[in-house]
Design brief:
mainly beta; four-stranded antiparallel beta sheet; 1 helix; 9 strands; 42% strand; elongated
Length: 120
Amino acid sequence: MFKSLLAAAAIAALGTGQACAHARLIRAEPRVGTTVAQSPVELRLSFSEAIDLAHSKVVLRAAGGAPVALGTLRLDRSDGRLVVAPVLGTLGPATYRVEWSMTSADTHQTDGDFKFTVKP
């Protein structure tokens, strides 16, 4: 009987792993670490889980660290895991840093950053 209880507890613990997961960045446009030929009109960040935009943010920083203006974040209409941040204005040739802090629909928060370069 002890072995049965132990096995049941192990199975239950394994089953809760997904519920405690955090949203991971799956892909981004512009792609992480790439050089693009022209200024992007928006940043697109795709995550492993649905996102709660009310508690999430994206910051774009120029080479010197100054923030670059972004429009209001929105979720892609067909995918609640895809966050879209409009870029206001044209980015000049430089390396930019995208900093993100996302809260998934299950209230877990994660953050990260990546860089991309706009070609001269």
